[in-house]
Specification:
alpha+beta; Beta-Lactamase; rod-shaped; YheO; Transcriptional regulator; DauR-like_HTH; DauR-like
Amino acid sequence: MSFVNEHFKMLCEIGECIAKQFGDDCEVVLHDLTRSYDNTIVAIWNGHVTGRNVGDGGTDAGLAILRGTAQPKDEYCYINRTKEGRILRSSSKYFLDEQGNAVGSLCINYDITALVAGQSAMMKLTSPDREENTREVFTSNIDELLEILMKEAVESTGHTLDTLDKEDKVAVVRYLDNKGAFLIKKSAERVADFLGISRFTVYNYLNEAQEEA
């Protein structure tokens, strides 16, 4: 009696469990490799995925193993395609005898064609048109937005707040002006306090930045 015949009930229970877990798009195939290779399939679930039935044969991979030109090595999560072009994510588990010969296999072919198409559609929707992403700041109030912009402005100089020189502070004011920060009510006063300068100096820096622009 072959290994597959001897353990047929248990192997079928495992195959059915996998097929039911992943649904109609998941084909599970049990091969008895001691049989003639044109009818190795002794059990199959969701055979519509590859169009096969009990009594049909295996793939070229199994044939190469039986021929001895390939080793019966378990493989998991590799990509296959059906002759109709459907994309399968496959895994193959081989059962070996005491001499190391393949006597059976349990193969899973999960049709991921729709998932790949969905992934492609999602990539088109979520990928930016430009290489550099445009980031927006979402806050619950305008004061918090100004606080964030001021911190970003300092970071753009490559220095810390306590090490900014006059040129850096002009750059901070320029950054804030470009971001529209001075449209916020009383922003000049807050920027002055943030940079440790007078409001008058902020306006001078603003004029200087605009003149440079």
